[in-house]
Design goal:
This protein has 381 residues and is an alpha+beta fold. It is 39% helix and 24% strand. The structure holds guanosine-5'-diphosphate (GDP) and manganese (II) ion (MN).
């Protein structure tokens, strides 16, 4: 789960990380009032679940309350990476001498929380990693001991020469690690971590992704979810207990089980196609789940063909077949569909589908190949 910058900042602050104060405005007038309260120059920042807000015009300095109002009005009308801006954070502006990057993520290769730091902060860290990898330093944390002071100092020396700043950064990294662990995060990031002309080290941006599996045991974090800031398709999928991840291709995949989803996506790629999504209807499907799954997939204009790949164990393939029939009766499909199902109640499922004018395949290779061909042809048409 993504949370907003202002929410991540609150968590970081509660662990002692130095961050300028700030508050949320949903109207230009509120932004003006906050700017008046803080006095001096403020920063007005779009609160959306996307990086690169600065480049998209979502982070602006305002020299006085009137300017804060005008800027807030503009930012509140923005769409950044398809996300509507509904709130802005207003915070006193800091003077910046340098910008660094500090982040901690779960690294699957080392199976550890891993720090990544770079003195080249403020910009996209992916870009730093690709173009100037020597400016990026990694350190995997041993979960038994946490981020040790000597390790944090070593990372700090990679960022700064001044030992005072190194110590300040080291402390911030240990606090960041504590926040990361306590929140069950999969990512916690400060970009930029700045130094001010008078030598202070401050976090000016905060990003955090909470592992969805933590939310049941951490209701106070679950409460941070802002559905209005999420893609409608993702909200719909979650409320229907579907696992849905949007991807960049054009073959809409509906499968049951994460392993089969992976195998299906691999095979789509193998046959030269690109999956448009990862949609898992899970183990015990009912027809309504299938109806919702089809609704989500068909609402995506980039989907040029739909591929069902169902292996019936606990999932009854006749349930899936009924779901497909119900959904397509309600809303006829605008793109071709390929259905492959095998397993529990397969004969019944095939009959239901054929009685309703669908073809059902049992071979996965054949089904995937056909779906890729149909998507490619539809794309060209
Ligand atoms: P992002 O683009 O979504 O990562 O948003 P950031 O919060 O990182 O802001 C982008 C850039 O705006 C930063 O890298 C800074 O250069 C600048 N910025 C943000 N806050 C301040 C501030 O308080 N003072 C100044 N002078 N610049 C700021
Ligand atoms: Mn940033």
């Amino acid at each position: 789960m993504n949370i907003h910058e202002y929410q991540a900042k609150e968590i970081f602050r509660s662990h002692g990380i130095p961050i300028p104060e700030g508050d949320i405005a949903t109207t230009p007038e509120q932004a003006e009032a906050l700017a008046k309260k803080y006095g001096g120059t403020v920063v007005v920042k779009a609160q959306v679940h996307a990086g690169g807000r600065g480049k998209a015009g979502g982070v602006k300095l305002a020299r006085n309350p009137k300017e804060a109002r005008e800027i807030a009005e503009k930012i509140l009308a923005l769409t950044i990476k398809d996300l509507l801006v509904k709130k802005v954070l207003v915070t006193p502006a800091a003077d910046i001498a340098t910008e660094a990057y500090v982040g901690v993520i779960i690294d699957r290769a080392s199976k550890r929380a891993t720090f990544m730091v770079s003195p080249a902060g403020g910009i996209d860290i992916e870009e730093v990693a690709a173009k100037t990898p020597e400016k990026l330093r990694k350190l995997a944390v041993d979960p038994r001991y946490g981020l040790q002071t000597y390790e944090a100092m070593e990372l700090g020396f990679f960022l700064y020469d001044d030992v005072k700043q190194v110590r300040a950064a080291a402390k911030i990294m240990q606090q960041l690690y504590a926040a990361f662990v306590a929140s069950g995060a999969s990512l916690a990031e400060i970009n930029p971590l700045v130094t001010t002309p008078d030598g202070k080290v401050l976090a000016l941006d905060a990003k955090m992704v909470i592992d969805d599996n933590e939310l049941d045991r951490k209701p106070e974090l679950a409460a941070l979810r802002d559905e209005s800031a999420e893609a409608p398709s993702e909200v719909e999928a979650r409320n229907a207990s579907l696992t849905f991840i949007k991807l960049d291709g054009n073959v809409g995949c509906i499968v049951n089980g994460a392993g089969l989803a992976m195998a299906t996506m691999d095979l789509v790629k193998y046959y030269g196609g690109e999956p448009a999504n990862f949609l898992d209807i899970g183990g015990s499907s009912n027809p309504e789940k299938v109806v919702t799954a089809l609704k989500i997939i068909t609402e995506d204009p980039s989907v040029k063909a739909i591929l069902f790949n169902i292996f019936g164990g606990i999932t009854r393939t006749d349930d899936v077949a009924n779901g497909i029939v119900t959904a397509t009766k309600k809303t006829p499909l605008a793109v071709p569909i390929v259905i492959r199902l095998t397993g529990t109640n397969e004969e019944i499922a095939v009959k239901i589908l054929e009685d309703n004018g669908f073809t059902a395949l049992t071979d996965m290779d054949e089904a995937v190949q056909r779906a890729v061909e149909l998507a490619t042809a539809k794309e060209a048409a």
